[in-house]
Design goal:
The protein has six helices and no strands. The chain has 119 residues and is mainly α. Helix 2 crosses helix 5 and helix 5 packs across helix 6. It is globular, with a radius of gyration of 17 Å. It starts with a helix and ends in a 6-residue tail after the last helix.
Length: 119
């Protein structure tokens, strides 16, 4: 178990470190880096490169934004296999729907439980 945690930490930490270097040493905004990470995940998944990284690092590769891009690409690929070209439009959303729903519901619950205040 320790080895799996170490691999996840090193790969996930490496992806985060790359993002931090991009923030610190380039003029890229965090929003552009976010889009770049998701796009890189889609491209690497489409090329078949990202799945072996997911199998190696587990959560270290699926939790960062590149993992979200890989999830979108996998959903599109599965939907195209099932329903043809119309699957391009719905596949990514149907694959990511559980995670998006969990994030929205968690945000709503937190907003209802706590009051925001200005400091």
């Amino acid at each position: 178990m320790f080895v799996e945690l170490l691999k996840a930490f090193l790969i996930g930490g490496g992806l985060c470190a790359i993002g931090q270097v991009l923030i610190d040493y380039t003029k890229l905004t965090p929003a552009r880096i976010l889009v770049g990470y998701v796009t890189a995940g889609v491209l690497l998944s489409g090329l078949g490169i990202y799945q072996p990284l997911i199998e190696f690092a587990g959560a270290g590769a699926t939790v960062p934004l590149t993992g979200f891009g890989a999830l979108l690409a996998r959903g599109v690929r599965m939907a195209v296999d099932e329903s043809g070209w119309p699957g391009i439009l719905a596949g990514g959303l149907s694959a990511a729907a559980p995670g998006i729903t969990a994030a929205v519901l968690t945000g709503l619950i937190i907003a209802l439980l706590f009051r925001s205040s200005f400091k």
